[in-house]
Design goal:
The chain is α/β, with parallel strands linked by helices and about 500 residues long. The chain has helices at about 25-35, 50-65, 80-85, 105-110, 115-130, 150-160, 175-190, 210-220, 240-250, 250-255, 265-275, 300-305, 335-345, 350-365, 375-385, 430-440, 485-500; strands spanning about 5-10, 40-45, 70-75, 95-100, 135-140, 165-170, 200-205, 225, 325-330, 370, 390-400, 405-415, 415-425, 445-455, 460-470, 475-480. It has an eight-stranded parallel barrel, surrounded by eight helices. Strands 11-12-13 form a three-stranded antiparallel β-sheet. Bound molecules: 3-methyl-2-oxobutanoic acid and zinc ion.
């Protein structure tokens, strides 16, 4: 039995389909570089036909990534496949992932196609994809509710046409482990040519079973799992990458396979994705939750101190948890700053960017004596944030006193000019947002506001996420500062800049 389990990460595609998780090209590139560092096998970078922005993002990832295969999703039509093929052209190793729905309800109600037409279209799709690459994945959307005989028929046809990976998605998260494993076993057993392709699964988490279903499929012979960092994804999300990887690594005796993932990169990847999307990780989330390795009870602590394996099945450091590391202070020099960023995997694209970031680091070091890795990461995430800012905070002042209405005054750079405004509100953050709106008049609705401390201590930077919606489009903005009102204003402006710059994109499955 093949003992390599291929990890296909779809954080940048299915993860991005979560409302509010939409990412800019630059953000996708940063996540893709971290996924490459983590050594995932395949990075699904997006759906190239969704918009010009998506096309450019997939292409940029294909240009930047050398160690992982870069993939674009495409519906089974000629235009989508040609867009995907062009976008992955620069990749060292590129894949086209094409799909069509196969369940009776999807074929009849959504596609309005007969089963014969669906098979024919799938085979034609493989033909177009072959003009660009030999690495072709075919997915039967809603396979989890499709008839097994029809799945056998369509998979046989696409394998004959040249598909090299066959993916079985539980699109609506309807399956349970024993049943899903049986489906995979039957397909591998019955489909002619099954031994020439990699069998893959893609599970959604509507019943909280995405990881369990994926692992059951691995036991039944699947050798690729599609998953996302932090389990990000449509509705209740996709199978979580960190749980899949650590389950097979920790229980090789059960799964009889392993991945090539560098597990020490898991926690940095989780933090990066959470920071960029603004989706926090619940504290008790397996592997990457803040409490995942915390032993509160006296009996557990005593046991762990005597012999850690009494209560620990994995080591925190093996998945990338480190204690807050004091890296630098106000006397650290430019070279030390640059080399610490390199160790953290942050790419500096120009001397100009380094100078600017270093100046901001010095400002932060003046306010905060101890600078941790997390502070540097937040600083750099601000530094490279796209789009080019239409709105920027130049200065601000806030007044808040017991028994008085809080007020805020802001000065903003707007395009090429400067604008000042003031407003009062029910709290200083509310006042700041209202003052910004006096200038921006954005017509957006505030969906979410959340604050997190980046490190410990009362001098920690606050990291704020703001989610705004306008005309059905949802964006997240982030900002960090030792002053949480300033962090809030930055996050609000970051979200407004995204609304301002954003182009519409389509969801491949709608
Ligand atoms: O959930 C799903 O069916 C998908 C396919 C496009 C693979 O995301
Ligand atoms: Zn999906």
């Amino acid at each position: 039995m093949n003992d390599q389990l291929i990890i296909f990460d779809t954080t940048l595609r299915d993860g991005e389909q979560s409302p509010g998780a939409s990412m800019t090209r630059d953000e996708k590139l940063r996540i893709a570089r971290q996924l490459e560092r983590m050594k995932v096998n395949v990075i699904e970078a997006g759906f190239a036909a969704a918009s010009n922005g998506d096309f450019e993002a997939v292409k940029a990832v294909a240009e930047a990534i050398r160690e992982s295969t870069v993939c674009s999703l495409a519906r089974a039509n000629e235009n989508d496949i040609r867009r995907a093929g062009e976008a992955i052209r620069p990749a060292a190793s590129g894949r086209i992932h094409t799909f069509i729905a196969t369940s009776p309800i999807h074929m009849e109600k959504k596609l309005r196609m007969t089963p014969d037409q669906v098979v024919e279209q799938a085979v034609r799709a493989i033909g177009w994809a072959k003009e660009y690459t030999d690495d072709i994945e075919f997915s039967a959307e809603d396979a989890g509710r499709s008839e097994i005989d029809f799945l056998c028929r369509i998979f046989e046809a696409v394998i004959k046409a040249g598909a090299t990976t066959i993916n079985v998605p539980d699109t609506v998260g309807y399956n349970v482990p024993e049943q899903f494993a049986e489906t995979i076993r039957t397909l591998i057993d019955r489909v002619p040519g099954a031994d020439k392709v990699v069998w893959s699964v893609h599970c959604h988490n509507d019943l909280g079973l995405a990881v369990a279903n994926s692992l059951a499929a691995v036991r039944a012979g699947a050798r690729q799992v599609e998953c996302t960092v932090n389990g990000l994804g449509e509705r209740a999300g996709n199978a979580s990458l960190e749980e899949i990887v650590m389950a097979v690594r920790t229980r090789k005796d059960i799964f009889q396979c392993d991945t090539r993932v560098d597990t020490t990169q898991i926690v940095p990847a989780s933090k990066l994705v959470s920071g960029i999307t603004g989706f926090p990780v619940q504290p008790n989330k397996a592997i990457v939750g803040a409490n995942a390795f915390a032993h509160e009870s006296g009996i557990h602590q005593d046991g762990v101190l005597k012999h850690r394996e009494t209560y620990e099945i994995m080591r925190a450091e093996d998945v990338g948890w480190t204690t807050n590391k004091l890296v630098m202070g106000k006397h650290s020099g430019r070279n030390a700053f640059r080399s610490r960023l390199q160790e953290l995997g942050v790419d500096i694209t120009s001397e100009e960017q380094l100078n600017h970031a270093f100046a901001r680091f010095k400002e932060l070091a003046d306010k905060k004596h101890e600078i941790f890795d997390e502070d540097l990461q937040a600083l750099m995430s601000d530094e490279s944030s796209e789009p080019k800012e239409h709105f920027r905070l130049l200065s601000s002042s806030f007044h808040s006193e017991t028994g008085e209405t809080p007020c805020a005054r802001v000065t903003l750079a707007v395009g090429g000019s400067e604008a000042k405004a003031e407003s009062c509100g029910s709290g200083p953050v509310d006042a700041a947002f209202k003052a910004i709106e006096v200038v921006a008049n954005s017509g957006t609705e505030l969906l979410l506001y959340s604050v997190n401390a980046i490190t410990t201590g009362t001098d920690a930077q606050g990291e704020v996420t703001v989610r705004l919606s306008k005309d059905g489009r949802v964006v997240n903005g982030q900002g960090a500062d030792t002053d949480i009102i300033v962090a809030s204003a930055k996050a609000y402006l970051n979200a407004l800049n995204k609304i301002q710059a954003g182009s519409e994109k389509m969801n491949p499955q709608v």
